[in-house]
Design brief:
about 180 residues; mainly alpha; about 75% helix
Length: about 180
């Protein structure tokens, strides 16, 4: 069961992911969370604090998704890694589209908000370190995993914009992963 703070943050993710950064206000979050006016500002006094909270909540939810994905796929093999990456791209652009769009909105806003920039970068580095550890289990170096993570970011953006919508990402991920392992 989510705490009230988590409910506020999940509502903020919904607002940000569906309406963009301009739509994110304390009032809109209160309405989306079905909470009394002022609830969001009780937890996050400023818009920047709210956005930093969203960045941290996204990281928590991403980490939980990756943990579940790893348990589902079983032992570390190259094919399981490829399957997991393809599943991630598909999930991020379909089922989890709103959360992904919220994350992209945060990236844009982080360019003018130092605290948010720091929070976004910290979360990105943690997830990147986790990816390096996971990919290292099948023989990918940290540098090669960085290339793979960068490709994933691009694949997600292209699918969100419709350039690669509906295309199965597994074939390209398999080609890239096998090339990096060669």
């Amino acid at each position: 069961m989510a705490t009230k703070r988590e409910q506020v943050l999940d509502a903020a993710i919904e607002v940000l992911g569906t309406g963009g950064s301009r739509a994110l206000t304390h009032r809109a979050v209160d309405q989306t969370a079905a909470m009394p006016p002022g609830s969001a500002s009780n937890y996050f006094r400023t818009r920047e604090a709210l956005m930093c909270g969203v960045a941290e909540r996204l990281e928590q939810r991403d980490h939980a998704d990756w943990e579940m994905l790893n348990r589902t796929l079983g032992p570390a093999t190259v094919e399981h890694l490829i399957d997991g990456l393809a599943l991630f791209v598909t999930h991020a652009t379909t089922t989890d589209r709103i959360r992904t769009q919220a994350r992209l909105a945060l990236f844009g806003e982080s360019q003018t908000m130092p605290a948010l920039h720091e929070s976004v970068q910290r979360g990105h580095q943690r997830l990147r370190a986790w990816a390096i550890e996971s990919a290292g289990a099948v023989g990918l170096t940290a540098g090669d995993t960085g290339i793979l993570v960068d490709y994933l970011d691009g694949a997600v953006v292209h699918r969100l914009t419709g350039a690669e919508a509906g295309k199965d990402p597994r074939e390209a991920l398999a080609r890239l992963t096998h090339a990096l392992l060669a």
